Amino acid sequence: MTVSEILTDLKAHSSQAYKNVIAKHGAVEPYFGVKIEYLKVLKKKLKVNQALAMELYDTGVSEAMYLAGLIVDPQKFTKAQLQKWAKAAAWSMISEYIVAACAAESKFARELAKAWIDSPKELLATTGWATLTHFISITPDEELDLDELRGLLAKVVQELPAERNRVRYCMNNYVIGVGCFVVPLLKEAKAAAKALGKVNVDMGDTSCKVPDALAYIEKVEALGRLGKKKKEARC
User: Fold this and answer.
1) How far is the C-alpha of 186 from the C-alpha of 115, rounded, in Å?
2) What DSSP string runs through 149-175?
């Protein structure tokens, strides 16, 4: 399928009702209102296609950008391409779940994440924290820099209260991620979660809630799922 054919197909599988839903979650035009479930159907049909992925992302259409992240090979990204994708992401579904997941699976995960988290641009900062969270969810503990992650926990505790709205959400998720995926840092993650307490984030006109980091970690612990890594960050 060509980019034009894919865009036509996406329009045919769009829904105004669903478009209204994601509008409340911050979607930025252009977007059609296509559910992720259908994007995964297209992923199976298109398979991995680096060139097509790059073309789809460049359309600026949210669903095409999301689909691009599903059919790309993250290991083939150049650093410049990832930086371009990050700068073009206009809302959280793309920045935190597609760009961040692709970056986490790339060769530049730590380097870019550490650069992005201190960005004056809110979406880029959220991409950085989300990249870190995705990265630790797929990387064996023995390959992680535990001192670095420990330092980032301290950074979250110190800086989260004064951070921007969506950055607070992603920082809180980072604490949860460390607690759930990095067993050697469980004690430190719990301490950070306790220090943070309830994290306030304006979730707009949605039913979404900000998870309580400590309660979330303890629930995963009770289920015996601590340290269970994911096969890939993209979903």
Assistant:
1) 25
2) HHHHHHHHHHHGGGS-HHHHHHHHHHH
Average pLDDT rounded to a whole number, residues 196-221: 97
| Token pair 């924290």: residue | 129
d(CA 26, CA 210): 16
In Å, how far are 58, 180, 212, 230 from 86, measured between CA atoms? Answer: 12, 26, 28, 23
What residue ranges do the domains of the chain occupy? 1-72, 92-235
Split at pLDDT 50, 70, 90, the class of 85 is very high
Q: CA nearest 74: which of 57, 91, 99?
A: 99
Query: What pLDDT is stored for residue 189 in this prediction?
Result: 98
71 φψ region: left (φ > 0), alpha (ψ -120 to 50), beta (else)? alpha
Determine what percent of the chain is predicted with pLDDT higher than 90.
100
